[in-house]
Amino acid sequence: MENLVDVKGLKVAVRPKKGVEIPIVKSVDFSLKKGEVLALIGESGSGKTTIALSLMGYARQGCHIVGGSIRVGEHDILSMSSGKLLKVRGRTISYIAQSAAAAFNPARTIMDQVIESALIHKTSSRHQAEKKAVKLFHELALPDPEHIGERYPHQVSGGQLQRLMAAMALITDPDLVILDEPTTALDVTTQIEVLNAFKKVVRERNTTAIYVSHDLAVVAQMADRIIVLKDGEVQENSTTQEILIAPKHEYTASLLKAMRHDRPSRDWNTEKRLGEKKDTPLLEVKHLEVEFVKGIPVLHDIDLKIERGQTIGVIGESGSGKTTFARSIVGLNSRSKGDIFLDGEPLSDTLDGRTKEQLRRIQYVFQNADTALNPKLTIGAILARPLAFYHGMKGQQVEERVAELLSLVQLPVSISDRRPTELSGGQKQRINLARALAAEPDVILCDEVTSALDTVVGAAILELMSDLRKTLNLSYLFISHDIRTVQSICDEVVVLYSGAKVEQAAGASFSLAGGERLPRHPYTDLLINSVPEMRQGWLETAHQSCSSLPIIDATPADESLCRFLSRCSKRINGTCNQTEPSKLSMANGQHILCHLEYADISGANENVVNHASAKPALESYQ
Amino acid sequence: MNSTIARLIVNRLGIGVLTLFIVSIVVFTITSLLPGDAAQEMLGQSATPETLAALRAEFGLDQPVYIRYIDWLGGLLSGDPGTSLVNGMPIMELIGGRLPASLKLAAAATLVSVPVALFIGIFSAMYRGSAFDRYSNMFAVFSVSVPEFLIATIAVLIFAVNLGWLSALSHISEDASFSEMVRAYAMPVLTLCCVLVAQMARMTRAAVIDQLSSPYVEMAMLKGASSIRIVLLHALPNAIGPIANAVALSLSYLLGGVIIVESIFNYPGIATLMLNSVTTRDMPLVQACAMLFCFGYLILVLFADICEIVSNPRLRK
Amino acid sequence: MKTAAASLFVQITSNFTRSLGAAIGFILVSFWLLMAVIGPFISPYDANAFVSYDVFGPMSAEFPLGSDYLGRDILSRILHGTPYTIGVALIATVSACVAGVVSGLIAAANSGWVDATISRTQDALISIPSKMFALIMVASFGSSVPLLIATAAIAYMPGSFRIARSLAVNVMTLDFIQVARLRGESTPYIIFREVLPNMFRPVLTDFGLRFVFIVLLLSSMSFLGLGIQPPEADWGSLVRENILALGEGAPAVIAPAVAIATLTIGVNLLIDSLGVKPDQDKGH
To answer: Where is the signal peptide (chain A) (predicted)?
Structure first.
């Protein structure tokens, strides 16, 4: 079959007002057959989006296409005038952007924007275009397809917007569709729905597509062929099969390894370290409840214990309350109910009510290292402050300790004269960690510390953290939206859903690659099943497990009912929508907040040691 | 209009009223702080203690400050700001005679400057970095940097002295023809417009550029939309709020600008009235004029804020 | 702070190679600042001496910028006016900015009623147009140099307050402030060590803009005869005194006007080259 796209020697450079040109795409060649889906994969700065946009003859502010040739169908893109390019964009080639929320114009209705390219390129009348849009909305499994177009972008959810953008791209039946990280901003449980919708329309319409992503597992579901990019150069260009099973290039292999999150060796396993267990846990949270608006709790009755040397993970999707939970522990958010104890001593609700010593013992590492470090201070000054503040160190002593801290996080001492803006993302996150270590804390709360980083860099940070934990006998509370990250380093994992703790279980049990499969809360099940696996064909099988929902009667508005009710595929009419779910505790230390008999979840019931009676399941077990 | 928008607007109106109240306190306090009083001022050297006391009683100056404030505020609210100390005329009448002239001048300046400024602002945003953009920016820097009296002086120098087209003073009789009107208004309006256009165009340009760098404009470009379509259908609907804000805020400059312009061209408006009252220290008139100007300013700011609220698509039902 | 100032200087000077405007701005501002200090000492004549028989005389070797309506040397009068125009405006600008920034920081650091009270009062002050405020002040207290300084400082403080407060509030939401709070740092430490250094550059830009506004206000007041009073004269007074020369296009009225324009345009060009613009100030 003939190639639809041929790219030869493509070069793109940043041209600053002053100084020399910086190449960001260095002589890239590839081609794409009709009906094929090609993935461009790489980390930030690899040039993947730049290459994809060049296919439309477009370069972002400051960038210039400086060489090479691009042919799409009969169009020689780089030799076209800007007027001619307008006729290709949106007609021959269309684009699906990463953040649909930003790419939709807030002032215009969705329908106006979806059919806009059809009107610009006069491929159909407004009436025909609207009919076609509704048909696409149906195909993309959007709710209320007849009327969703009348709404404004802020009135629909992120996952829906992303699918609406696919409709926008397909309205003119383009020869080529470019998908730029279309699911990166979504929660995993939403991502799987969007991926399914994309896959279906791509297959049914035999669309030729370029899929840009940093996530190999997602790409494995969509692409026939993968190009691995690094620093604007092609590292490897093979079929998806080959890349996943037998990567030829070293960089591809390292990417695969980092993404698989192989569990670090288990020599620091729980039993050994908990040998020194005391009676009181290091940190204990009892019946925590937080309200931002009076009467509307965002966290419900949460219990948690962290032992010395233990790492606890907290996972949940955006809005589940995981960051609020961590902020309440450190005293940044005040609580409406419940108690927090450090070594058995109660902790005050506010920062002012805590002693310096208490503040020192619990440290918090923020998600975004860019904003967590004061850009006007040097690294040395940033690290010196907690030393002076908590330990009263001075002069020479501070300098020595700063050097020690830097070597602890594997950075050169020379970095201490620099400012945060001069460092890379990974280096900044290490400084962030070093500042927490400077306090010599007992427990560190880590809020999504790797989610802003590239996979390989993030994996290195995780490795560093587990090393530090061994040498310093630290405890971590590790907050993340990513099960792969959490299960690899946590002894225990807490699952939050809509402010409630629905499950707590051993970290290893969350391992995606088979292993010890446990009975689960239905939400945990959905979460685990939604994480793309690094193999082709996963999407098809995973989708089957997300079956349709049992029909239940109208649910009374009651805060105490199960929060997952509206999405649960195992809900029971007359129970789940009537009574409060109960807390189950298993012999293996697992906790589940659910009505279902353990037997119903797992198909085996010998492990149940304690279970509040299910009929009526009113009294909950403490 | 939905309840959120209504609530925000009511809230904004409430703040406006509160602000006006604080302004009245500030204006009254400053104008009443002076050691001598109006009675002393009027009688001068010839004052005997008796006549002074009588006059004070007449003006209510023997009352405590807060009583005088409440009386004054009540007067303002009921439309009677008192009488002039200089000629004994009711202030309402003095202002009423001058206000239409000032409003005419302001209206003329607005009608000329707004379309010109929007045109310059939008075009220089669309063709950023072009010669047009650079020259309009140079003009803007020049206009906001130099005092109005300098612009007025240059205008007089060119149009009245060198070219002899226009008269340096703007006298207009009741039965003036249209061309006479234009000639009389040309220079005051031109002077006011220089600064107005510069400010408005700069702010409009910034608002449009802000929109043009948004992801949804990039999306529209990638759909093949022409630059006219992008500006008209994508950027402008979102820039209406900021642009309305820019227009209202720039127009508030008129309140300061007319003082100079009316004085230079000897224009019989409210600002010359205020200037005269300052030189003659006719305090009731100063107070009334000041409150009138502040009221005008608050109306404009309020208008700007309401435009911003109403044009925010996220507040739609 | 010192390093921030140094890096700013480096940026300004390095901008010269790129932008002609920045270079012109820098030269004009430096020249006038120098004149504000040495101007009165290098003037060829006494500012109030009647030295020419010619009224509104043209430019000549003897009187480089001509003579005024009483036959005084315009160059000398401009040089003597420099400390009034620049010095008075500078003191007023410093007062306005210090008061504005301090109250802005206090408001930003104390949420609740402290912030609400300060913000409401400043909002009320900003809604009195600056020229109007100056007229009220002059009407009430008469015109003098200290009064003019106080007037300009009060009139332009609210704008500075707004910018400082919004900058501080923005910085306060950043994570490194939370880090400092979590460490147990005191409010003054957070304000001075963490917040203030991050506001330095935009506040400096705002200072420049405010200086221009104040120069314009004070010149306008003098032009109306309500500013600096005779026998002293700033550049605005010089334009007023010699306004009759307009008919002849004599340098007596043009030269002081050009002096004002070169100063304010110079400051504006310099600000533009810094590349940071604070929010548009309400009420020019």
So the answer is: none
